[in-house]
Structure formats: structure tokens, C-alpha cells
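Form 7-S
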Amino acid sequence: MDNKYYNIANMEDSGFLRIFTRQTKQEETRDTLTPVDSTGTRAPLQDDILSPNHAFSENEDGTRTLTLFSHFPRGRKEKGFYRGSLNIDNIPELADSAFAASVTTLVIRGEAIAARDIKCIKKYRASNGGVLPGLTRVSLPDFAGEIPNLGHEYEPNAWLERFEAPMAKSVGYIAFNNCTGLVSVDLSAAEIIEERAFARCSRLTTVDLPVARIVHCRAFERCSRLITVNLPAAKVVCLWAFKDCSSLTTVDLPVARIIQSRAFERCSNLTTVDLPAARIIQSRAFERCSNLKTINLPVAEIIERRAFKYCSSLITVDLPAAKKIKRYALYDCSRLITVNLPVAKSIGRRAFKYCSSLATVDLPAAKTIESRAFEYCPNLTTVDLPAAKKIRNEVFFCCSALRTLKLGYAGKVRLKADIFGNKDRDMANIIDLYLDAARVPSKGRRRYGKYTWRHIQTYIP
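Output:
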């Protein structure tokens, strides 16, 4: 069939105003095309037609929607995949159409869309001669593959505002990176969100990904207006995934097991974290979340270094399953009042340093308290360590209000010679020490572990 030119013709009983059809000199092509119904669907094209059908429809606001019907050309197969049919060269006369300038929505129908076809969308909208200069919305209702790169790694893309691909299985690497105009997305079937998929989408406010299982690193980094995230099926949130999402207020990840390093770092408006299935909170996961007030981590076993460092609004920490609190984990949580760590066996270096509001610490299972763990806790008055075997150097440095230290271990507790620091070596004189009955010195002696205490009494749980 000779391919000569495109013609815009009226179609009766259809939901579209006009439709592009291919014609020959004898005008035989119209008979080979299946009419389009009001829903925009149609029967498959014949195999010898090598370009898609095109249709315009008018929107209520006077703008127009352009619908492209994709298909697999016969015999065109490359590296196991069919080549798509949406190359701009296939519709050279579109730029001359009177409707092109008013098109704001592009809909691509059919399952034959290839990744290279979607990349052509950027050319359609390109500011330097793009055939659809007003395009702001893209819909791919039948596409079930991976969304390729519509953004740019370094340069902002401000034209794309809405994107819908409800059947797409994954969102590819930097798919919407730097799409600074993106307001909403519909990716209800996406299971994997690749690296930087939505990074720097500064207008995106809500994300609903009901079946996404993995959120890769930097996926939503610097989405400064992102408020709500719904990831009910996500099991892993990778490093930097939501870093610098300064408007994010709530995190609800009901099945997430691992929160990787810096996943929510500097989410300055985050107030509530609900992670009922998370077992590991990696380093700096919530560092500098200055408005974080409530955390729910009922099964978390390991709190890595700096996990909640500088969370200055955190008041209560309840970690009933945590076994290890690593260094700097709750460093400078200046409003922290209550800590519940019933099974924690080790407290890392400087874990609670600068927790200036902390008054009471009860660590029933802790065996080792690393150096400077409670340094600069000026309001700390009572510490109960019934299982502690080792207390490292300067653990209670500058804890000027400390008056009661309870050590209930039946064996000898190793107290470093400077647990109060070099400047406060005589601080033990104002502290009541409680020891296992077998360890209490006889005849009212007050010496224990190179220190002279105010009183040494029998430990009572």
C-alpha cells in the first residue's frame, strides 16, 4: 500500500471530533481502519499499516486531547522486543494541524508501546520546535512495562504536571527526576520504584503506590512539598529514599522490614513514624527530623548509629524488642523524657549524649554501657542497670543531678576509673550506690570500684 499523506476527516458516532486516517491516491485506506468508539478503544490495525491512528477530542475547558493508537508493525523485532511505532517522523504533518497547539493531554492506547515510544513524548513537548507545545498531561492506560526516563538527571522539566500509567509494573531510573512541575501520578500497579524515580519533584504532594514492594535509593529525595506517602506493601525503603522531604508529616509503612541509611534524613516536618514490622533501622534513618514526636517500632531489634540523632522534639522512646542501641542513636534528643528498652543488651557510645531532659533510665537487660553513653544529661537523677557488667569511661560525665545508681549484677561490675570524667572524680560522694547483696561491703564501708560513695545499699529490683 502506497503511503502518501495524512488527512483529517470527520467520524460519525464516535467520541472524537476528528481522526487521522491514512489514505492512498485512490482513498482506499479508510476502509482498512476500524472505527473508534466513545471509550477510545478499537480493534487491532491490519499488520500492513505501519503507523498508529491519531484522534483529537475536545475537553470542557476548550483544550484538546490527542489519542494515539499504537500497534506492533509486522516483522519489526530487535533484540527480542518489537520496535514501537510512535516515532515523531511517523506523523510529520501533526505540527501543521490547527489543533496541535491546543493539545494539553496525550493519551497513548494499546499494549504495543515500547520504552523508546515513551521517550518520544519529550520530543513532542520539546520547547525548541515540539509539535505539542501545550502538553501537560500524559496517560498510558494500557502500558504494562517500566516507565523510562521522562525527566533529566540535571536539568529541570517543568512542563509535565500529570502522569497516569495504572498498569505499569515499575518506575525506572530517573523516570521523573527533576520533573519540577509534576503534581500527581497514577501508578497503582507499580511494584518497584527505581533509583531517583521522583527525585526533586518539588510540586508533588501525595504519593499512593498500593503495591510497591521496594523503594530504591533517592526515589523521592528533595520532594520538598511531599506531605503524604502511602506504601502499604513496601518491604524495603532504601537509603536516601525520602531525604530532604521537608513537608512530609507522617510515615506509615505497615510491612516495611528495613529502613536503610538516611531514608528520612532531614524530614524536618515529620511528626509520626509508624513502622510495626520494621526490624532494622539503619544509620541516620531519621537524623535531623526535628519535629518528630512519636515513633512506633514494636519489633525493631537494631537501632543503628545516629538513627534518631538531633530529633529534638522526641519525648518518648518505646523500643520493646531492641537489642542493640548503637552509637549516637539518640544523640541530642533534647526533649527526651522517657526511654523504654526492656531487652537492650548494649548501649553504644554517646547514644544518649545531650539528652538534657532525660530524668530516669531503666535498662533491665543491658550488660555493657559504652563510653559517654549518658554524657551531658544534666537532669538525669536515677539509673537502674540490674544486669550491667561493664560501665565504660565517662558514661555519666556532666550528669550533675545524678543521685541514684543501681547495679544489680551478682558478679563484679567493672567500673572504669573515670565514669564521671576527670573533672568529677569525687561525684560518687553524693550518689547512693545499690549493689547485689553479696557485693555490699561490710561494716558500713563506702568504697567500691575505686570510688567512695555516699551510701552503698542492697539492690532491690
